[in-house]
Amino acid sequence: MASTSSGSSETASVATSPAASASSTPSSVAAVSEKTPDETSKLRMFLGILRKFIGVADIASVRFSLPAQLLEPTPNLEYWNYLDQPNTFVAIGDSDEPVDRMLEVLRFWFTKDLKYVKGKPCKPYNSTLGEFFRCNWETEDSAPLIDTAGKTQSLPGSSASSFKSKKSTPPPPAATTKSGKKIRVSYLTEQTSHHPPVSAFYVDCPEKGISARGFDQLSAKFTGTSIKVTPGEHNLGIFISIQKRDNEEYQLTHPAAHLGGLLRGSLSVTVGDHCYVTCPKTKIKTILQYLEEGWLGKAQNKVEGVVFRYDPEKDDKIRTKDVPEKDILARISGNWREQVSFTLPPKFDKPHVIVDLRPLEVVPKILPPESLQLPNESLRFWSGVTDAIMARQFSRATTIKQELEERQRSKAREREATGTEWSPRFFTGAVTPLGRPHLTDEGKEVLRNMQQEKWELEESQFLGA
Fold this sequence. Notes:
Strand content: 15-25%
Shape: globular
Structural class: alpha+beta
Distance between the termini: 29 Å
Number of domains: 1
Number of strands: 16
């Protein structure tokens, strides 16, 4: 589903942070602990605010501020990412068979939103212009190999083995088991635009020759009973590149999601839409269909799909029923909150598990030392708000938050008065190139240093807030 890291609407701390500095200024708000509202009270308050936006086409583009007691004490850029299970990411590209590599990409896809499966929906802080976040993961290279060759009888023109890449020289056949050695993955994201609200991200795993990038932007509409979240115009999905496979690129588009349960006081995420994974180089595509609520409104959390060969020059198949049977290489089915499997031709009768999400947990991040975080680095920037929320000083947290938001508006007025155009630090454009952000030389250097656990970084010359 689409990440909400860059929405402008409201859908570990360091003492020297800007937020902490703001909290030290004289204020009429007393720093006293307040009663923490229960979830029902929070939702009732949230619903009251949302009702003002019934009929608004995109509440994600509307500027309004939520009180601190409705927020999760976490910055958006820290919370929203796609590496909840990084071991599935580093396993992409291990197989010599193109259809198996597509299944490896799908395994990653079904684990990228594990936070929704294991935790409740929440609203982190909005990102401010120029704010950035960086982290590493260290994960075992332990995801099971996917091997369809021994699981099906060959059919003329439909065998997975007929899709070997002819343009690349494959590495030696992979072993049936993996070493389980630790692999480092680095992640860098920056809020590149405020109007429209957009953030760019880059994931790098040089040891395995895999990278991912994209722009995060959402559009949201309140229907009266739920919030429908769809990708914004600059969000074309996740683009994964496999260097060792002749730079194969996979585009993974986000489906629409619904945030429901507002009326009954129990938030939940449901998905009812199509999404697509395409690889023009191998000419293999996947259509996934997420099924909406079933009879009597009970969520099914079902997903179905097909993996098939397609013509990139004539990519006109948008529904699973549009795909000719002779082109189908695998069928996908399962529960995206529990377990997803694939079946193979000709009978499609024996399921093979792609991933079982039930025993999985979100993998923790490795963060820069607090002393090396910059003033506009997410955790440090919002630390004053976080400290106040954790101390249940919600009025004070709201005041600090509003001061930070006003500072961003003041900086914007200064740029407008001087005719200065904002430029991101780590990415070459605020919303360009289309769908696929490019790193600046400094962005590339930051990621190289992160791979060596070097966190030192000069402070930004220009701040957006």
